[in-house]
User: Fold this.
Amino acid sequence: MVRFENVGMRYGPGPEILRDVTFTLDPGSFTFLTGPSGAGKSTLLKLTYLAEAPSRGLINLFGSNLSRVPRAQLPALRRRIGVVFQDFRLLDHLSAFDNVALPLRIAGREAANYRRDVEELLSWVGLGNRLSARPSTLSGGEQQRIAIARAVVARPDLLLADEPTGNVDPDMGQRLIRLFEELNKLGTTVLIATHDRSLIESARAREMRLVEGRVIELRSPIA
Amino acid sequence: MNPNARIMPRDKGAASLDVVIAVMAFLAALALGASLIAERAATTWRTGLAGRLTVQVLPPEKSRASPNREIDAALAVLRSTPGIAHATLISEQDTLTLIKPWLGSDALVADLPIPRLIDAEIAPGAPLDIASLRKRLKTAAPDSFLDDHTRWLSRLRSLAEGITWSAYGVLLLIALATAATVSFATRAGLEAHREIVELLHQIGAHSGFIARAFEWHYFVAALIAASIGTGLAGLLYMAGTGAELVGIEAVPFLPPIGLHLSEVAWLLAVPVAVSWIALLTARLSVLGALSRAY
Assistant:
């Protein structure tokens, strides 16, 4: 599903943020990405969701070597990835419903076909009664849940989340992790960057630790 | 919940952008209207005198013969000349009316030696030998002078063409300034929405989808603002037309500052052009920005 081989990343002439990063995410796997602040977790996620190109090394995504994928085909790859951004990146002028439905609109689906899916998903994340609310009127935790719903609504092949439970209480955090696990059971590969140890301990999943730009595998997935 | 909700929000500071576009459209519409008026005036001047002749018969003080006899002789020559559609003696009252704008109408004018004028119209397309006619008029009425307006027409044509081309030059400059302003404002608006472009790009939108969302947004905004600006210019010209209808002359001898209905239709080109400039700028800017993104 995802394979990094000796990937290095630096921004402009600055120091290397990632060094010789090599790892594989198997299809259907569930992995936590941990590490201290500034270790390069967000950069690794950006490389994976195709926001940046690596300075060196190879990235293989969905069986394609990204260095050989034509630019015109990158949007199709991006649509197979759901991303929960750390800063949510919700569109303030759209309602909660319209924010969640955005990936489906982009994919060209008709509103009549996805209305029920979006409403059910928003109910699952506890926002069934806030469909028309604008993000600016919602709390940080509620905005985060909209961001998560938007990331999973198109049932992506790969889900990437940057601190997805940072703004919600422990109970909602566990509920959201269950959502990710449900999605994972349906075949979605999940990679979650987090500092939340309780979250990591509660989920029986592989943990990949990033220290000073290098990947240290700490815990293998439990069968 | 609105599945067709606009992906683009209203811009921050959009009101000032709209005002700029409306003002530029207003100026462009004024310049276009001025060009149309200048063109119409030039045509009127050209066609008004073309095909006409004027015969002056000197007043009694300077005439060696009876003026009435000379007038009759001149009229007879003109009316018997093939190619002259008709020849009419302008009454003394009408002659005074003609010179009133230049000399006024006080008692002094009545004492001036005013020549009598004969207005003749050349039949359209008829060949007329002006030199031969002049010679025959001199023979029949020695104190008459034939003016075929060639000298005036030549100068008037040059003046009219100068005014028309100047108006088109001003129109071109304002059109360029409008295009540059709309383009600049559109790019500034896009910069304010860079995060939206990045998000749409990130969740898999094709460049064409993003460009369409932006270009439509700016097309509609520019169309509304430019329509308001053009509408105001149109009202101004309609006021000019109204003044013309009630007999108010803005500047003597110059054409009234009003547009005919068929000319007003040309003003519609301004909002159309402005909105398409905004659309194309938005499209090219978005596609340019996305081509630099990964």
